[in-house]
Amino acid sequence: MSVTAPIASQGDLSRADLVERVVELRNQHSATLPERTRIRAVLDGGPDGMRALLGDKIKGIGSDIPAPNLIASAMEHLAQKLSDTPILRADPPARVRDENVAQEKAEKRERIVENYDEICKLDLQLPYIARWLIGYGYAAWVIRDWKSPDGHRYPFAELRDPWDIYPGYWGPSHEPADLAAIRRVPARAMAAIFPEYAERLLSGGRPAGQWSGGGLVLDPTRGSSENPAGAGLEVIEYYNAEGTWIYVPEKDLLVDYQPN
Questions:
Q1: Cα distance from N-terminal residue to C-terminal residue, the chain
Q2: What is the pLDDT of residue 213?
């Protein structure tokens, strides 16, 4: 992720419109936010998972009760069954008449895709996907355009936790037109990704009350799968057909825009 254009020309979406749309997307999911909290507790297991299943009125649930561990174990076994890396098969191109040449081309494509999967550690991502599908019913990948040390470009898949994302209207084709991700990222991690903004990212935040969103992270007291401590800056990622925006509202800083 790198800045590819001056901030003044980063897309047709103004910062105010960006925040307004992200808040709108989050509000569209307001009815299901308590359910997300319950799903996450069940997926995490332990006493909180037991309370989520049996209700808040259950008293005296401790870590010594076996049911939460059995639930977690069952989900883990199911996730293992769902999370095997798929076997790739590329059919030989029909336009190539020489069977040997066609087979070589197909095998080359298979090796290329297998390398893509290996680079983005797909085998480590799929177990997360399997567990989240059990609870949320969906997950999201963000496909980045990365470059190898020798300058070759390739697609890189980054996984997003459903706990943090808010897709737009699914529609009959089940393809949302846009999606927002709201996460907390440590300031030093953001500064390492965007060194040109390091000074502002590591400095003090905006005065209280100036960030009109008031904070959009679902539960500031709990972290995410990628940031268990839950500390750091609130970061908005917004994706639509035009491009990708990464905005830090506490700093009023649009650190990145990449056109699609």
A1: 13
A2: 46
d(CA 11, CA 5): 9
What are 58-117's pLDDT values in tens digits?
A: 555 555 555 556 666 666 667 676 666 667 677 776 666 667 777 788 888 888 888 888
CA separation for the pair 196, 77 (Å, rounded) = 45
CA angle (148 as vertex; 143, 152 as ends), nearest 5: 85
pLDDT at site 210: 43
Compute the distance between CA of residue 89 and CA of residue 43 in angstroms, rounded to an integer: 33
Cβ pair 252, 206 in contact under 8 A: yes
Query: Rounded to whole angstroms, what are the CA distances from 13 to 26, 168, 183?
Result: 18, 17, 21
> To which residue do tokens 């709990």 refer?
222
Instruction: Give the global pTM.
Output: 0.71
Amino acid at 114: E
HEC-encoded secondary structure of the chain: CCCCCCHHHCCCCCHHHHHHHHHHHHHHCHHHHHHHHHHHHHHHCHHHHHHHHHCCCCCCCCCCCHHHHHHHHHHHHHHHHHCCCCCCCCCCCCCCCCHHHHHHHHHHHHHHHHHHHHHCCHHHHHHHHHHHHHHCCCCEEEEEEEECCCCCEEEEEEEECHHHEEECCCCCCCCCCCEEEEEEECHHHHHHHCHHHHHHHHCCCCCCCCCCCCCCCCCCCCCCCCCCCCCCEEEEEEECCCEEEEEEHHHCEEEEEEEC
Number of other CB atoms surrounding residue 121 within 10 Å: 11
